[in-house]
Amino acid sequence: MYTVPALVFALLSSASFAAGTLTVSTAQGSVVGTQALPRVRQWLGIPFATAARWTAPSLPATRTSPFNANAYGPSCHQLTTLTTDYYLEFAHQDEPLTVSEDCLSLNIWAPSTSRPQNTAVLIWIYGGGFQFGASDLGVYNGRNFVNDNDDLIIVTFNYRINMFGQPNAPQLVSTTDSQNFGLLDIKAAIDWVKDNIAGFGGNPNRISIFGHSAGAAAADIYAQAYPTDTTVKGMILQSGTIGALSDVGSPTLDSAPWHTVAQAVGCGNSATPAQFTCMQGKSAETLIQAARDANIIFFKLVTDDIIIHSDWANRMATGNFLKVPTVVGTTQHEFDPLTVGGSLATGGNAPPFITTARADILTQVGSTCGASSASKGRYDNGVTTWRYQYQAVWPGINTRQDLRAFHGADIPLIFGTFASVQTNPAPTADEVAFSLYVKNAWAEFARNPSTGLTGVGWPTYNPSADTLVQLGNVENLTGYSLASPSLLDATCAHTTTLLTILDQYNTILSSI
After folding, report:
1. Averaged over 399-423, what is the pLDDT?
2. Is-contact 360 369, C-beta < 8 A?
3. E strand or H helix that includes residue 160
4. Strands (E), 115-201
5. What whole-number distance in Å separates Cα of residue 17 and Cα of residue 43?
6. Is 213 in the active site?
7. Cα–Cα–Cα angle for 181, 184, 187, nearest 5°?
8. How far is residue 179's CA from residue 167's CA, in Å, rounded to a whole number?
9. CA distance 101 to 209
10. Which residues form the signal peptide (predicted)?
C-alpha cells in the first residue's frame, strides 16, 4: 500500500513523464504540446521562420522560455472573392479566425510515445490559388490521420500568399533573389522540419510532401527549383501541377495589380524606391482592402528563372527535376464548384447543363491534361509514378446536386475529418470505409515512397496500360478500380478546340 508521501511522489512522477513526452527541444528552444487524442500528440503554432514584409524568410530567434504550442498561429492575410467564398463553403473550408503578417508557423501531429517512433513524415501544403488558404482549417487537422496509421507524422504550415507572397513589385526584380516569397516559405518549412522533426519522433530521412491545388503545384515547382534536393523523398500532387498553372511561362512581371493598389493607397503608380517604401508603410489591412475594392483577384507567381523557370516544360522533358517517387491525381469534376459559384456570385443562374459542360471542359484543360503531362514526364524519365482520379460522391460532402467529385472533395476523406465538417446527412458506412482506405494508401506511400502503393495493389503508371487508379468508382465505392489513362487524356491534344467550345458556352450563359 502507498503511504501518502509515496503516493504523491508516484503521481508527480507520472505527471512529469506525461509532460516530458509533450516537451520537445528544437533549434529555437523547447516547445510544449498537448494530447490531441490518447494515441496522438500535437503541437500547434510553432514559428518556423520570420520575415519582414516582402523579404525572404529566416530562422526565428532563439527563445529562452518554453513555447506553449497549444493553439494555431495566425493565418496569413487572405484575398478572396465572392466566387471563392462559394468554393470555400462547398469544400467545407472556413475562413481563418485570425490573420497577421507574422504568420509563419507550423503544426505537428505525432504518435504517442507508446507507439512506434522514428516515423515517416508527411508535410501538407494547402491550396487556394496562392491567394488564400491556411493551415488552421478543421479539414486539415492531422489527428485522425495519425490516430489511424502507425509510423506517420503529419505536419501542416502557413506560407505567404497574394500580394504578400508574390507582390510582382518592379523594385524587387533581381537575377539572384526571388520575390516568390510564399514559395521560399515552403522551402523554409521543409528545412525546419528536417532539422527538428527527430525530437517529435520523426525520421528526418523519411520526409515526403503532399499538397492540394496550388499546394500541389508548389510541390511540383519545388521539384524543378531544387533538382538535387536530398530532403524530400516522395511527393503526392493532389489536383495541381506546374503544367496546370496559367501564370507560369516567359519571365515577365505582372505589375499592374501592384501599381493599382499603390495608386489607391496614395503611393502613386511609378516604380520608384519611394513607392516601395510607401507601400511598406501601409498596413496589411489597408493593402488587402484596396485590392478588393479594385476587384483584384490575383497576384501571379513570378517566373523569375530562380524558383520558377520559364523552360519548365523542357526541364520536365529532359529530366532536370527532383526524381523522387510521385503520386499525381485529380478529381473527376474539378471545376464544378468554381463554375457553379461563379454563376451564383454574379447573380446569374447556374443551369445544370451549361455549368456541367463548362466544368467538364475546364477540368480537362485546367487539371486533367496537366496531370497527364506531369505523370508522363516522370514516366519518360524513369521515375516511379502513380496516377489516380477521385470519383466518389458522398451526400454529406457533395451538398448540391450540381457538385459531383469536385475540387477538394477528397480532402476530408484523406485527412479523416469528414465527420467533423459534414452535419447532414451523417457519414455512411461506405464513406467511413473509403476514408480508412485512402488514409492508409497515403500513409503507405509515406512509409515507403518507392513501393508503398504497390503493396496496396496500385500499379505504377504506364500511359498505355490500365494503370489509372479510380478511387471511389461505382464499381468499388470503398476502394479502387483500374482504367486506361489514355482514355482520360484523349482530348488533351485538342485544347484549342475545347476552349473555343467553352467560349460558346460562356456566350450562352451570359444571355440567360
Report:
1. 90
2. no
3. none
4. 119-125, 152-157
5. 17
6. yes
7. 160
8. 7
9. 24
10. 1-20
Residue 357 contacts by C-beta under 8 Å, 6 or more apart in sequence? 505
The residue from 75, 213, 239, 367 that is catalytic is 213
Q: 181-196 vs 214-225: helix axis angle to the nearest 10?
A: 80
DSSP per-residue codes, 414-430:
HHT-HHHH--SSPPPHH
- Amino acid identity, position 166: Q
Is the pLDDT reported for residue 422 higher than 90?
Answer: no
Query: What are 228's three cell numbers?
Result: 538535387
Over the chain, what is the mean pLDDT?
Answer: 92
Strands 105-111 and 152-157: antiparallel
Which residue do the cell numbers 469536385 mark?
406
CATH number of the 26-254+299-511 domain: 3.40.50.1820
Domain boundaries, the chain: 26-254+299-511, 255-298
Instruction: Provide the H-helix boundaries in 270-368.
Output: 273-281, 284-293, 312-318, 336-345, 352-363
Q: How far apart are CA 359 and CA 363, in angstroms?
A: 6
Beta-bridged to residue 106, according to DSSP, are: 46, 157
CA distances for 310 relative to 141, 212, 251, 347, angstroms: 36, 23, 6, 38
Q: What is the pTM of this model?
A: 0.94
Three-state SS across 86-97?
HHHHHCCCCCCC
pLDDT class for 1, splitting at 50, 70, 90?
Answer: very low
Here the cell at position 391 is 470519383
Residues 6+ apart with CB under 8 A from 177: 56, 306
